[in-house]
Write a structure and sequence with these properties.
96 residues; alpha+beta; globular; 2 helices; three-stranded antiparallel β-sheet
Length: 96
């Protein structure tokens, strides 16, 4: 699936948990492996042509905030929208 690891977290959505089962982290923050941050920064600087096209022609101009190369858990996802809890991975046509 593209380069690197891509996945949607397997953790339950916090808003669906009972109040006494709420996770310890704030709702707006996702757990992530801090050692992935330098790689995520490098991937942001060196986007593939497909990622660049998707970012500059579509996601960047949307009213909802999207993030590029976002570390989540042990993964780095191509695009992430926290408000919608949505992950998008740009996969080039050669892999299909």
């Amino acid at each position: 699936m593209g380069r690197g690891k891509h996945s949607i977290g397997r953790r339950p959505i916090p808003s669906l948990l009972a109040h006494d089962q709420a996770p310890a982290y704030p709702r707006h923050m996702r757990d992530y492996n801090r050692s992935n941050t330098p790689l995520a920064q490098k991937l942001r600087r060196n986007m593939t042509p497909w990622e660049r096209k998707l970012w500059h022609e579509h996601l960047k101009s949307l009213p909802i905030r999207w993030q590029r190369q976002k570390p989540i858990d042990e993964f780095i996802v191509d695009f992430y929208c926290a408000k919608a809890r949505l992950v998008s991975c740009a996969v080039n046509s050669l892999l299909n």
